[in-house]
Amino acid sequence: MSQFSDRELGMDRDITRRDFLNGMAVGVGALGMTRSAPAQEPAGQSPYYPPVRTGMRGSHDGSYEAVHSLKDGTFWKHAAKPIDTHETYDLVVVGGGISGLAAAYFFRQHAGESARILILENHDDFGGHAKRNEFHLGGRMQLVNGGTVAIDSPTPYSAEADGLLKELGIDPLAMAKKYPAINVSGDLGLKQAVFFDQETFGEDRLVVGVPARGRGRTGANPTSWKEFLAKSPLSEQVQSDIARLEEEQVDYLPGLSSAEKKDRLSRMSYKDFLLNIAKVDPGVIPFYQTRTQGEWGVGIDAEPALDCWALRMPGFQGLKLEPGSAPHMSFTAAGYANGGSYFFHFPDGNASIARLLVRKLIPSAVPGSSVEDLVTSVVDYSCLDQAQAPVRIRLNSPVVRARHHGNPAHAREVEVVYLQGQKLFKVKARGVVMACWNMVVPFLCPEVPAKQKEAMHYLVKVPLVYTRVGIRNWTAFQNLGMSGAASPGMYHTGVNLSTGPEIGDYKCSRSPGEPIILGMTRTPCQPGLPVREQHKAGRAELLATSFETCERKIRDQLARILSGGGFDPARDIEAITMNRWPHGYGYEYNPLFDPEWPPGEAPHEIGRRRFGRITIANSDSAATAYTDAAINQAYRAVNELISA
Ligand SMILES: Cc1cc2nc3c(=O)[nH]c(=O)nc-3n(C[C@H](O)[C@H](O)[C@H](O)COP(=O)(O)OP(=O)(O)OC[C@H]3O[C@@H](n4cnc5c(N)ncnc54)[C@H](O)[C@@H]3O)c2cc1C
Predict the structure, then answer these.
(1) Distance CA 583, CA 95 (A)
(2) Distance between CA 461 and CA 293 in Å, rounded?
(3) 129 C-beta closer than 6 A to ligand 1
(4) pTM (2 decimals)?
(5) 3-state SS record for 146-193
(6) In this structure, what are the phi and psi dihedrals at residue 75, rounded to the nearest 5 degrees?
(7) Is residue 131 lining ligand 1, measured as CB closer than 6 Å?
(8) In this structure, are residues 250 and 277 in contact, taking their beta carbons and an 8 Å threshold?
């Protein structure tokens, strides 16, 4: 419960930038749109520079209403006749994410540099989930990912995906060595913390110094779990059960072989494992409930225990399970159990991959020639859609229809209709790659067979929010001795100082007296429901929550966690960007809820089938949420088109 007034939280402060319209599910028709206004565009740069926009980003207003209206069946009731642009392309790509940009790249490799390609994207920036957030704090540029974070996948990058990275100049292994993430908080001895909130744990209390263990946790910390938990508001029984899970070597399934144990663990949720097998007090559950959300978008009630073992969650150390994957595991868990891919991340995440692809496709738009100069390079958005250029990227242009001229089996052309502002336009294409979210394809292509439409609707994407808060300095973190805190019961389930590698001229915040960006994550879901229903409920909640409500929650949360270190939300917050992704991660099958389909008959395999001169890419087509999958699917979709 907040003890702070709006004034104390700084709700009246004129930060860069708060737009109360953003994030409201404003009741506009399909053609009546608002578009987020530019803010803090750096001096001397093109006036159109979406990476610096703040407020409600991700799926910003103006990007989704048309397709929602198509879904509701209201769009064509209000629509005027599309205006003919008289443009004809060899390829139209729907969706300017990594998959769409990679599709344009692969097609061009096959068809030559003069091939005419148009990429249509509904957002005001390219990159899809791979979005760049650029803050200018205290006169210095600070970068962070607005979505897709890292070159990191459960399985090794394919020859095509690895080859593309190399052609762009990215050698992940070499770059990871040359440009390691800067560990300023580690150098200062700052530790991870847990914030126990009053609503969930009965009392607001920050406990610093989480003992190190588990995937993703950094910093060796000699404190024992017993010592750490003794400072928490948890009951003695709950403390003792958590310490047992974290530290003791108990075989909770004695008498079974490793394979038999894995089989049993794959058929129960982690929550059920904790309650019924490890027999912990129910008060333990809120401590772990949200731990799996960052990976799968749902809590431990809906994630198999075996998948949680692969993520090195506690309780399994005494079971002596053989390393490696087993049947009935999710793609992510099975992959990480077998080792995963290489890992590297740019200061703006995989937005750098998108920017490098655009540099290859439209060199004048992205100045420079190396991965090093890319990081601080200023994109000239006015070059993206130039009439004389063979490749064009048209932003703010949701596609609302892609239809063959004549029978899809024999047609030689597809007509693509898109919305820009209040008007509809049409272009012709010899082929179309739908690199957009697969579940929107049925609304854009009514001719697709019913079975294929049904398959695409099955793939319910995972809603996620990556919030970025620019603050004046991080002395409060230093004073509290912490680099970040998990807050398992709160609106955002954690807050962390964001630091990345320094590449080229880019420098990150090195001293607590300097401004920095905080990263906060929220994964809305509804525990207890089947997994896809949880994602739908989370999406509805996200779209119905105003930015004002979110801002108040952000300020309140930061005040409650950090005020003990001297943080004042009214004084210290300089900018807020909420990257809202109602359609986030591509859906990955969950062994607790999804059947095993015969080869070739899984929804993503039926959904991605070629349809006349239209093929289907996007990471959705692989039923995963990874950049290599987005590239692999682009490669397949382009090859299907070429050989059609
Ligand atoms: C918050 C977040 C973090 C992630 N972190 C990672 C990570 O660390 N590593 C990793 O490998 N993957 C990560 N992912 C997964 C990410 O989805 C993929 O890596 C990859 O970026 C997906 O690319 P894509 O082109 O397939 O899809 P998208 O990036 O979603 O691009 C599809 C584009 O099509 C557009 N579109 C939709 N409908 C239309 C229409 N009607 N008209 C025109 N355009 C349309 C969409 O708006 C979007 O821009 C993350 C995803 C999210 C949401």
Answers:
(1) 13
(2) 14
(3) yes
(4) 0.94
(5) CCCCCECCCCCCCHHHHHHHHHHCCCHHHHHHHCCCCCHHHHCCCEEE
(6) -60, -55
(7) no
(8) no
